[in-house]
Amino acid sequence: MNQYSIRQQLFITYIPIIFLSIFVIGLVLVMDSTRQLKENYQSLAASNAQRVKSVIFDTTNMFTNSANYMSTDDYLRSVLTVNYSTVMDAQEAMNSYTYIDHLKKQETSIYNITIYTTNPTITDYQNFVYADKTIQKKSWFTRALNQPNEFWITDNSENINKLTLYKILPLPLSNYKAVLKMEVDYNYLKNRMNTQNYYTELQVNQNKIFYSDILQNVGHSQTFTIKNPNKNAFEKFIDIKSAPNTLVAVNHLTLSNETDQINIYSADFSAYTSLKKNVVRWSSILVLILLTTLIIVVAFANFFSHRIKNLQNAVYHASIEDYAFFNNISGNDEISKISLDFHTIIQHIKTKEEQIFQAQLSEKELLNQQQQMEFRLLAGQVNPHFLFNTLETIRMTALKNGNKDVAQAIKLLAKSMRFTLDYQGKKISMLSDELEAVKVYVRIQKMRFGDRVNYEVSISENIDSQHVEILPLLIQPLVENAITHGLEGIDEKGTVKLKIEKIAGDIILDVIDNGIGISEEKLEEIKERIEKNDIDSTKHIGLKNINNRIKMFYGEKYGLSIKSRLGSGTQVRIIINSLSE
């Protein structure tokens, strides 16, 4: 090295170190940011597929429950099995069955409901169709008659392929046959699933797709060619004709009959382009930094070399006692000049050390911020969806192992937890949602206590629970209190009755149990505690907090009251104002 000048030594020593460090660090950052961005796009695509799965799950469950209800409806059986003397008699009987019209008005996901019957006295009218020999020979008709459970196929109706449920309607005391057909509405699925960022396709089993964000693709094979599409959920980049390197998230939903499966394809056409732009952007920044560093290093090398030459000239002229030159560099003699140069160098070194120290502080602060961000990201990953997906995995494992009771208990637990999470942050809820939450809670308790716990609901005809708004979590704590304390010690059949009435614009809710009751002394103590306006305890929801919440929201004239007699059960009543109906 000492064979080269100071300037050349700087280039030989510092340039490779600086260039290699910046290049390696920049390359790692580019690769890491691209990897994180890719994982983010994959996670978002998977979340969209899971969202679509939830919509399909709710829709198919509603269809299955409605079909099961109709298959056990005695009135519908009587309509289908009677031999009518005239067409008008048959039409009058079909008009009297209003469940289908009510269901179609209530559920916008239903495109059409048709009942095919071999009863020759029933003609094609409204939702009923006579199944002639041509219809009876169709594959779906024969399959429905030979299969006790419902099944799903992609059926072409009105030149549009729709997801369709078929189920036999048993007529045990008749020689006639009947098959139910329910079709999912395409526009309903489009309104629920269509987003600007993702393209979605759905197919049942390996049939033609029954839903696509592009209507022209419905009825064709899926756009994405994937090996073993039914195996597992995944997200990866694949090539298709119109858009190479498309990010596709695949998910699956096994329907309630456990034989049919819906394949969900969620595609992001812009993910690869964004990843490419990210690589180009950060690579350009890396090249710009390298060029800037090169310019800075060259400038610094020239500057430093010039200073060394000035020092060399000063020392040389001092050695020959050229004091005039020495004076030109701010010195009176050789020692003063060297001292001054050393002092300048020391000040320069101190400045550099201070800059390095400040840079280290900035680096530590940046590292601390990055660690905090990583912790927040890690904490954000533990969300309700992870919990529900875990419970669903446990439930499916229990079903696979034949533990239906365990699977049912996990399903009810997940549903109850979802109600609780949905109520968080809400100031108001629908009465129907409250009743459904209570129903799920009681089912869990029945699995625990059996016939010791029974539940009855009575709602006045002038109350539409779908349109009545109340404070959340008013009813369930009362039912829970009745089961936990009211029915405690009851060996015989215990019953909790929920009675809801509307009188003069007020909603009256009574929770009545036939349990052990409360003594007069304890009842007075409970009433006194309820009347105290003490809301410090917020860990548990009790009668006192329910009373306080009602008074704070609805006014002092509303609230909670309790009646009981030892050995004769307990009645808890809350009166609230009917907000809307």
What's the layout of helices and strands?
Elements: H1 6-71, H2 74-81, H3 87-96, H4 99-106, E1 110-117, E2 128-130, H5 133-136, H6 139-146, E3 151-157, E4 160-168, E5 178-184, H7 186-193, E6 199-204, E7 209-212, E8 234-238, E9 246-254, E10 261-268, H8 271-319, H9 323-328, H10 334-381, H11 384-400, H12 404-423, E11 429-430, H13 431-449, E12 453-459, E13 469-470, H14 475-486, E14 494-503, E15 506-513, H15 520-531, H16 543-554, E16 559-564, E17 570-577
Parallel strand pairs: 1-2, 12-14
Antiparallel strand pairs: 1-5, 3-4, 4-5, 6-7, 6-10, 8-9, 9-10, 11-13, 14-15, 15-17, 16-17
Briefly, what CATH class of the largest domain?
A: Alpha Beta
Enumerate how many helices there are, as a single number.
16
CATH architecture of the largest domain: 2-Layer Sandwich
Provide the low-confidence segments as ranges.
369-382, 537-541
Number of β-strand runs = 17
Distance between the termini: 91 Å
The H-level CATH homologous superfamily of the largest domain, spelled out, is PAS domain
Helix share of residues?
40-55%
Structural class: alpha+beta
| Number of domain units | 3
Mean pLDDT, to the nearest integer, reads: 79
Largest sheet: 5 strands, mixed
Q: What percentage of the residues does DSSP assign to strands (E)? A: 15-25%
Q: Which shape, going by the Cα principal axes?
A: flat
CATH topology of the largest domain: Beta-Lactamase
As laid out across the biggest beta sheet, the strand order is 2-1-5-4-3
